[in-house]
Each structure stands twice: as C-alpha cells, then as structure tokens.
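Methods — Computational structure assignment.
A single polypeptide chain was analysed. Its primary sequence is given first, followed by the predicted tertiary structure written as structure tokens.
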Amino acid sequence: MMQRLAQRYVRTINRTCRRTGTLWEGRYKAGLIDTESYLLTCMRYIELNPLRAQMVAHPAEYAWSSYPHNAAGNTDPVITSHPLYRQLGQDQTRRCHVYRALFSAHIAPDQLHAIRHTANQELVLGSGAFKQQIENMLNRQTEERPRGRPRKTRDNGEY
C-alpha cells in the first residue's frame, strides 16, 4: 500500500511540476573547494544552473537562488554572506555591482568541466598545493587516479 501511495504521489508531483523521474534521484554529492581560487566561480556556476537548464531567463527569476541577495542586496535571513563575497566591496551596493559584473563573463568550458567532474567524483577543486594539503591532512584522495594496479614496466625488471 505504501509503495502504491508513493508512486501516485510522485506521478502527481511530476505532472504538476512538469518534471520526470524520481523525487530523490541520485545521492548527495559534495566536494571541498579552495575558497580563494574557486568560491566565486562555484557560486556563479550554481546560480547559472537554472539558466543552463532553461528553467528561467535570468538567475534572479529562480525562486531558490541566492542571486537576488548577492547581486541586488535583497535581504534573506537564510543567507550568510561569505567573507570572500564581503571583500568584493566596502558596502553592499559596491559588492552587488561587482557581483553582477562577474556574470557578464562566461564560465570557461574547462572550469565547467572541472566543477562538474570534481562534484560528481567527490574530489577536491583547487590548486595543486591545496590538494596536497588536503591529502596530507585527511589521508584522502583528491584527484581521480587510473583504475587497477599500476602496470609493470621494464625499469623494475618485470613485464
């Protein structure tokens, strides 16, 4: 009975919201980022996702976006500005102006790929030094490595 109820609920939500698939597709994925180098790029990436998905014509139109707070100064009690964002200007008006200017440039395809890849693989996005620091601190892989054992080479006398 519960399975049937859940199936009907999902169908109703999908029909109402004009979407497909399960309500909770995939698992939650997160990765560490080097704040200094990548935070603002990742913020732009996230706030431009609804545009790339053709859900809205402008990032401010998406109901769940922090763009109105960051770019227009609309107060939102749920959002706490990151210190790096606060460094964009002396006052909120200046920060908003600089933040809006960031959206005039496209995110480079290699940056898009890096963000998507590291998020999907739950790796670390940042400089080589940052990745090494994380590996040392957490004893955790920070970059994707080839699958399987390393191939034997002639250098060590084996094939």
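Note: Residues 71 and 96 are 4 Å apart (CA to CA).
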